[in-house]
Design a protein that fits this description.
homodimer, Aldehyde Dehydrogenase, Chain A, domain 1, about 45% helix
Amino acid sequence: MPQDIKAMMQEIGAQAQSASQILALASCEQKNHALLKAAQAIRNHKEKILAANKKDIDRAKERGLSPALIDRLLLDDARTENIAASIEAIAKLDDPVGHIMDRWQRPNQLNISRIRVPLGVIGIIYESRPNVTADAGILCLKSGNAAVLRCGSESKYSSRALHKALVEGLIAAGLPKESIQLIPTQDREAVGELLKLQDYVDIIIPRGGKGLIKRVQEESRIPVIAHLDGICHIYLESSAAIDKAVDIIHNAKMRRTGICGAAETLLVERAALSSHLPAILDRLISSGCEIRGDSDVQKLNPKILPAFEEDWKTEYLEAVFSIKTVENTAQAIAHIARYGSHHTDCIITENPLHAEKFLNEVDSAIVMHNASTQFADGGEFGMGAEIGISTGKMHARGPVGLEQLTSYKYQVRGNGQIRPL
Amino acid sequence: MPQDIKAMMQEIGAQAQSASQILALASCEQKNHALLKAAQAIRNHKEKILAANKKDIDRAKERGLSPALIDRLLLDDARTENIAASIEAIAKLDDPVGHIMDRWQRPNQLNISRIRVPLGVIGIIYESRPNVTADAGILCLKSGNAAVLRCGSESKYSSRALHKALVEGLIAAGLPKESIQLIPTQDREAVGELLKLQDYVDIIIPRGGKGLIKRVQEESRIPVIAHLDGICHIYLESSAAIDKAVDIIHNAKMRRTGICGAAETLLVERAALSSHLPAILDRLISSGCEIRGDSDVQKLNPKILPAFEEDWKTEYLEAVFSIKTVENTAQAIAHIARYGSHHTDCIITENPLHAEKFLNEVDSAIVMHNASTQFADGGEFGMGAEIGISTGKMHARGPVGLEQLTSYKYQVRGNGQIRPL
C-alpha cells in the first residue's frame, strides 16, 4: 500500500508540474474566467456542498470534537456564499504575473527587465477549515501556480465537494484540471510523500498547529513558508493618550483571542503603571480577560495572578494577558528580542522619537505604532487575500498574498553584445 | 572531540546572532568605514597574505592538485590588490537596508511601509578560491548581515590571513569582530554542525561543486540559496544576422568555458543549418572547440562527433559544445524545458515575435535575446557584486547581490485605529 501511495504522489506531482507550465503562460482573463466559473459552481452546487459538510460534521460529533472545532468545520448558506464571493474578489485583484518590477539599461546598451513569474507548484497542507481548499487553490491559480492540496481528514467530504467546484471552473476556462489537485487519500503517508516531491513541488505551505509545522520543517526537502508562533507584544508608554491606549489594547487582546495577531503580552513603562494601567485593567477584566502580572502590576488589582517566566514565552490564544513593567523603550525592545516570535509588535506612545526607535529596532514582520495588532492580516493590508502570515525572513515575510506566491526572472534584450574578456 | 566542535559551533552561532543585531542597526557610514579599513588592512598586510598563500600553494603542490586548481588558489600582487579594490567598490554601492520598497495608506488612515532589513546570519560554505573569504564577508557586512564562513581546507592559510584583515576593519569601525567569523577548524564535522545551527543561522549559501551543494541541501534544516547546474542554451534562428550569431555563440561558449553562464548546447532551426551553421562551426572548431551534433549537424563537417542523449543533460564546463536541430521556436523552448537547468538561455533571431515568445516562455532565471550568455553575472547586470547565481525560485533568483541578501518588514503607523469585528 505505501508503494501505491508513493506512485500516486509521483503522478500527482508530475501532473501538477505539467499544469504549472500551462498556467504560467495563461492570460489573466483565462485565469479570471476559471475563478468566476468556480464561484458560480459553488453557488450551483451549494446543496451538495452542504450535504458533504453535514457528513464531516456528523463524523466530528461522533468523534467528540470540541464545539470550537466543529464550528470551524461548519459550512452554512452564508459561509458558502462567502467562499464564492471571496473567489470573485480574488478575480478582481491585479495579476502579479508579468508585472515589470524593475527595468534598466546597461552602458553597453543591454536592456534588462525583472518581471514576476509564478513559483511553479505549491503544496499546501492544512487542517480543519474547509474554506482553505477554495482560498488556497484560488490564490495559487490567480498567481499562475499549480496547487497540490492536502486537507485535514475532518474536512474531507466538504473539501472534496468544494474542490469539484474549482475543477468545474478550470475546465470551463480550458485550463488543466490538474491545476488544483486535492490529494484523494486520507493516509498519513501521503503527507510524507508530498514532502519528498522536490522534483515537482517548488514550495510547501503548512497551515495548522505547531505539530504539523514542525513535522513539515523537519521532513521536507522542499523550501517551506511557514507561520510559527504569534507572540505579539504591545509596549505602552506614559506619553500615550489614555483613551486610545485602552481601545487599542482591548481590541488587540480581546477582538478575537484565537488569531495569530492577538496580543499576548503588554509591556508597561513604569511611569504609566499608575497613570494608564488601571483604566486598561478595568476594561480587560470586565471583558473577562485573565491578567497575569509581575509584582508591580499585581499591586494594582487583587484579581491579577502572578506571571512566571513561562508566561513571557506563551502564545495563549485565549483571554489571558501577561503584563510586565519595563523602564524604557530600550528595555521593551530587549524583552521582545528575547521572547518575541518576530510576528507583530506595537508601541503605544505620543512620543514620535520613541515610536521611530521601536519601528526601526524591533525585528518583526510587522511593527506598529498606535494601532491594534489585530490588523496583522493581508486583507487589512490591502493585499486582497492571504494564504497565511510568514514568520520566516526568506522569500516572504508577513502576509503571504498573490505577490508573495511569485518569483521573478530577468529578460535581457541585446543587439549582438558579447562580453569582453 | 566532536562534542567540542558542537560546542564551538554553538558559540560561533550565538556570537554571530548577537553581532547581527548590532549590524542590523549600524549606519551605512559605519559599515563603509569598516569596509575601507579592511581594504587598507589587506594592502598593509599584503606580504603576510602572500606568505600564507604560499603555504597553501606548497601544500596543494605536495598533494598533487591540478594546475587549474592551483591557479584558482594563487594570490599575487595583482590579485590581492583586486580584492582590496573590490571591497572599496562595494563600499560605494547603495546600502539596501532601510530602503522603502513600497508605501501606501489604507482607507482607515493606517500608513503602511515595507522596508528592507537584513536577513540576519548568513552561513557560507565555499571551496578553493581564497578571495571568496573577502567577497562573501564584505557583501554580508554591507547588507547588514553577520557572516559565518567556512572555507575549503586548500585555502585555509590564505583565508585566515584575509579574514584577519576584515576583522581589523570591523574593529576600526567599532563593529563586533564576530560580524564576520571564519570557522577555525578544518574538521569535516564542522560543516555538519553549521547546517544544524537553525536557531542562529538564517540562510546557508554553498559555493562549490555539486557534491557540496547536494550535501547541504540534504542535511540542512536552514533555508538554502544554491546554484546548481548551468546548462545554458542558445537557440539560433534562420532570421539571425550571421555575423552577430557567430560572435555571440563563440563568446558564449569560448570566452571562459568553466563559468556557469557558458553555453553548453546550441539549438539550430533547421532552416539555419546550411545558411548559418557552417560559419559558426568554422569559428568554433578553429578555436579548439569539440563539437557533438545530431545526424543533420554531423553532415556539415567531418570533425563533428555524434551527440547522445547524455550530451543534452551535460554541463561540460570545457571546450565542448552539443548542437541539435529543431524545427521551430516551440521545439527549442520544449528542449530547454526538458533538459535545461533554469539558469540562462538565449535566442538569436531578428524576428521580434519569436524573441518575445522565447523571453516569455522559457522558465529560466535569465532569458536573453541577441547577447552572450556569459553576461549572466551580477557585476554585468549592474548589481555591483554578487555572491553567486541562484537557480532556485525561492527568495532570490539569478545573481545574488546586496538586495538579495535582505528581507523586509512592514512598519504600520496609526493614530488609534482598532480593527472592527
